[in-house]
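Example record used in the benchmark description.
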Amino acid sequence: RVQVVESGGGLVQAGSSLRLSCTISGYPFGTYAMGWFRQSTGKEREAVSCIQNDGQRYNFLDSFRFTISRDVNKRTLYLQMNDLTPWDTAIYYCAAREFISCYSPMDVEDFQHWGQGTQVTVSS
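Model output (structure tokens):
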């Protein structure tokens, strides 16, 4: 059984940085694509970033403030978020799929395994 667990969210001030972590067990970590989504109150879940099996990364937000990375030995996916703004406030979800590549656009339906999410709140 695949288990996806996010951590690292919290309440921060605008301009701060956060690094989210996601551990995935019961899954061939690094073999397939993994990604981050986020969902703000009243909005649909949107793609943030994806990393595929060969390490190539994709950003889906109009921002270079977010960077996805992974540590295969630790079976952990990361999302480094810099210069946060109140518009980044959302629940951030880690997701894993059973396919090697990231798609563009990246849809919720493309991912089979999800965590419960971690709340990120940015105050002005």
